[in-house]
Design goal:
Blueprint: E1 2-7, H1 13-24, E2 27-30, H2 31-41, H3 44-54, H4 61-73, E3 79-82, H5 88-100, E4 105-112, H6 115-123, E5 127-129, E6 135-137, H7 144-149, E7 153-155, H8 162-185, E8 189-193, H9 198-209
Parallel strand pairs: 1-3, 1-4, 2-3, 4-8
Antiparallel strand pairs: 5-6, 5-7
């Protein structure tokens, strides 16, 4: 099963994607991670992506789809698309790409969270930068104590302030609402409540995906 996972800021999309990947045997593709890995590989494509990003520009839809297509073609697992599509043209391109590979999107699920809940949750969020450079989220799977034990540095993202969070929330809805309508029209859209315990969110996601 190939799915698109969308999520309001602070809804725990990354956490839930990791849990779904493990539970359902899927492959989680985060577009941000994909671009970073491509750049780190030193490939010609990676150098091209690095030049675009270093120049302050966005990677084109066509290039992003090309990168994703190579990854999807290389696995027999179902895919969790995380961070793509963000626009209706991207959603249409994703559909075309999957058809070319003999695949089909099964669901597009959004983890929704009220704005005030997102502000409270993200304002309190802390992260840990380990000596290796790896960054981990402080939470149920990685505690403050574990961060300190491993010699990590505890910090807060500069955009985890109420003003920045409200702006991100507004951008999220502006970008994703047309995509939500697109998937509703195609009978693929579903929504779960992100304003509850993470395990309850996970169980709701499983219920939606198994329908």
């Amino acid at each position: 099963m190939d799915i698109v996972l969308m999520g309001a800021p602070g809804a725990g999309k990354g956490t839930q994607a990791a849990k779904l990947e493990k539970e359902l045997g899927l492959k989680h593709i985060s577009t941000g991670d994909v671009l970073r890995e491509e750049i780190a590989s030193g490939s010609e494509l990676g150098k091209r992506v690095a030049a675009i990003i270093d120049g302050g520009d966005l990677v084109s839809d066509e290039l992003m789809v090309s990168i994703l297509k190579n990854i999807v073609a290389g696995t027999d697992k179902g895919i969790i698309f995380d961070g793509f599509p963000r626009t209706v043209p991207q959603a249409q391109m994703l559909d075309d790409m999957l058809k070319q590979l003999g695949r089909k999107l099964g669901k597009a699920v959004a983890i929704e969270l009220p704005e005030e809940a997102a502000v409270q949750r993200l304002s309190a969020r802390k992260q840990c930068k380990l000596p290796s450079g790896e960054v981990k989220q402080i939470g149920p799977d990685f505690s403050l104590e574990e961060c300190q034990k491993q010699g990590g540095e505890i910090f807060q993202r500069p955009d985890d302030t109420p003003g920045h969070i409200r702006h991100r929330f507004a951008v999220y809805h502006q970008q994703t609402e047309p995509v939500m309508r697109f998937y509703r029209q195609n009978g693929l859209y579903a929504e779960v409540n992100g304003d509850q315990d993470p395990q309850a969110v996970f169980e709701d996601l499983l219920a939606v995906l198994k329908k």
